[in-house]
User: Fold this.
Amino acid sequence: MNVVLSRAARMVRALGMLAALALGSGLALAQEPIRIGVFQPLTGPFTKNGVEHWEAMQIARDMINERGGINGRKIEYVLADVPSPAAAISETERVITKEKVKITTGSGLSPLAIAVSQAAERHGAFHWETVGAAEVITRRGFKYTFQVGGASRLYSQAALDFALDELSRRLKIAPNDLRIALLWENRALGKSVGDGIRIHAADRGVKLVYDEGYDQFLTDMTPIVQKLKDVNPDVLITIGYPNDVILFQRKAKELNFYVKALIGVSGGYSNPELRDSIGNSVYGLFVSEFPPRVNPKALKPEALEAANEFFRRYEAKMKRPPAGHASASFSALWGLYTEIFPKAKTFEPSELREIALSLDLPMGSLPNGSGIKFTNHDWAPDKKDFGQNLRAAIGIWQWQKDGNNEVFPKELATHEPVLVPLPPWSQR
Amino acid sequence: MDTLAQLVLSGILVGSIYALMSVGLTLIFGVLRIVNFAHGEFLMLGMYGAWAMSRFAGVNPYVGLLLVVPAMFLFGMLVYKLIVTPGLDKPHLVIVFATMGLSIMLQNLALMIMSADLFDVPPMFGGRSLGIGPLYVKTELLIGFCIALGVTFAMRWIVKTTYLGKAIRATVQDREAASLMGIPVHRIFLITFASGSALVGLAACVMLPVFSVFPTVGLNFVLIAFVIVVLGGMGSIEGALLGGICIGVVQSMSSYYFAPAYGQLFFFILFMLVLVFRPAGLMGQKGTANLGMNP
Assistant:
């Protein structure tokens, strides 16, 4: 009897030990962090952008980790500096192969996003692109790349729709009579947005009175401003980077080039330092971009709560409110951490891909007003397109005295547009 | 007609600023026969210096040059001692790579310390221009033009008439003979390199009211400076002024009459034509590349 008992006791003890072992390893697995490769330009000419994105991404990670992580697992970043597309490819290769990372995100701006996603796809990693907007990103037949922040076409559409639907009414000029000029800087974003505006203008039956690109190293804007004075537009839509935008604005003032309204597309016009460089003449300029802060009524309660917390933390750290692109990076990651990760079990790229494709979130689900619905070879204009978020929020905000305020579309707007038409230079 | 006049005027004014930025480069090349690939970063340093004085001491960049120019002179001496001297007797490529390395280092140092933000000084004359009939002239550019002219003539005068100028010319003509005649060749090199650096500092103070400063600002201008030096005639100071103005006008006219995207294309075409038909540049003499400054 004793023998039987002791055998049973031994079995129970062994089973107990096995259970403890299994539980222990399960716990260990639960504690293992979810590692994500983050690619941002932290040196080189795009550093400014990269640093802002990196801050926003860290806030997303910290907020999730402070809430206990994803089912007990913390999020951990493996950061890589990608100052150029060439560096982006080699760093992505390194992080995926050496650091064994299967989830990647980034990448600050389009040329880098193109490179990072290409290298990630080659290794079958799941790439969650937060702001890279070039149309080509989702048109290469990739399987694991998701462009959450929206394609550049949306910037173009927002700018032109705003001019035709809102500005024409305020300027009391019929949309068909509105003289619209387009000036673009001839790198990836400028060209891509310029193409989008041209196509959308044709769709809406509008003829542009001026359409020209310029070289990024142009140091004298006199010829451009002179040409614009010749065509005398009512509205100027322009895409540029910080340095050339400052040169342009100063030259416009110097040569007394007056336009009734100016819509800058992302890049230099959303640069927070623009006000320091061109002073009060910044007020009244419109920017077509990711919305920095949207109407609280447009957001779901949990998205609003996250947005408020993000704004509070970002301002405390950076001493200024986040620009739209930083908000977009935060929002995209917030979507990844709250909508995809909690449903994942293996965190393998194929599983994450399926969850991403199954999402059908209405506008207002993410903290910057976006929703999520990805294309999956089912988008009418291009059946090859995969992973483009059709519900990315892109709107128009305006440099106003009390901040950068969203003014278009109506559902995202927090303020009414002001200074339409712009006052003459002598009063700005 | 007004448009044409405006374009030519703007081209001349901007071109003279380019020239001012190139004088230091051509001086160093003319005397030492080395190319300073960190020239653009020297400009960036000078601009940050002028900006810092304006930002923290409220000193106008035109006054700030009284400190920036001597500081850049000292910086030039330091670079000469630490980086140029060890490479002087070695193959040309050593100094090319040494100055290129310095350029990358300075750029990244600026990124670490100053971040990639753009900095500038508030517009000095209300941001508006002087109106001359139908033409607009930016006051800051006009000041830059006058300084560029002044510097060119002053440099010409120093090289032609002073004892230092004679020593420089002697060194250019024949280093060994000059050395045998008791001219301290290495000191002449040191003074020339430091002066070249000081001239970039001067250009930086003149440019800051017009252009923003950021860590890679040198890249926007250094290519133009190299073109101007070759176009004007390597080592020729008046050539730099003429070359600068040519580039300014060509850039302005071609951007207006053709397309702004091709502004650089046209001045590179001009550059190639000059190299093919007049390899010594507009004001240089044959064999300048080997001979150095036009004595």
